[in-house]
Amino acid sequence: MSEITATTAKARYIDTAEVAKMMRPQLRRPFPGVKFSVRISRYSGGSSIDIRWTDGPTVKQVEAVTHAFQSARFDGMIDLQYSANSWYCATHGARVAETYGHGMGDDGPVESRCCAAAELVHFGSGYIHEVRELSDGFRSVLAVQVRHESGMGKDAPMDERLPEGSLYQLYPYDTVRDGVYRLSVKTEHLPYGSTKTTP
Length: 199
Ligand SMILES: [Zn+2]
What we know:
The structure is a single chain. By secondary structure, the chain is α+β, with helices and mostly antiparallel strands. It is 22% helix and 31% strand. It folds into two domains: 121 residues, no CATH class; 63 residues, no CATH class. Strands 1, 4, 5, 6, 7 and 8 form a six-stranded mixed sheet that branches. A hairpin with a 4-residue loop joins strand 4 and strand 5. The structure holds zinc ion. Zinc ion binds next to loops.
């Protein structure tokens, strides 16, 4: 029996509603207890999926799961949209099998098949958007850290400007609120209120 590769197999089309269903358990497994809202938008020429949740994992962590459930890819360098087929199995989720339509030598196989159960598919969902909301509780935990690490008073308001030299300051007019956002991007909110920041 010869090996199945992305370039020899024909991708099965999966409608976006089905993609949303497939994605739920893949999000539940690494992030138990987090409620994800998964919504589909259809428009002429395609569809997309919006994922929203509060606190929990960072956008980057969720993207690691959802990235390969998109059939559209965008190369900002040359302003070009191109396509992807993915490997999918219920155990390992989705991984990008191959890309095509790029035309700049970037077409071809990407990741190898995860296991023999994986099927080559083309997801109906062009793009997936991840939106993370922050609860007031999590926001204040982050604000405590930003103020402390910036050498500010404990009661400094959210719109107070970060002092010169604060590690959360990117622009001169940045406030505590900007610092909170910047810290949240790399901070996971774990169950029972603990947090984990990755550099
Ligand atoms: Zn697999």
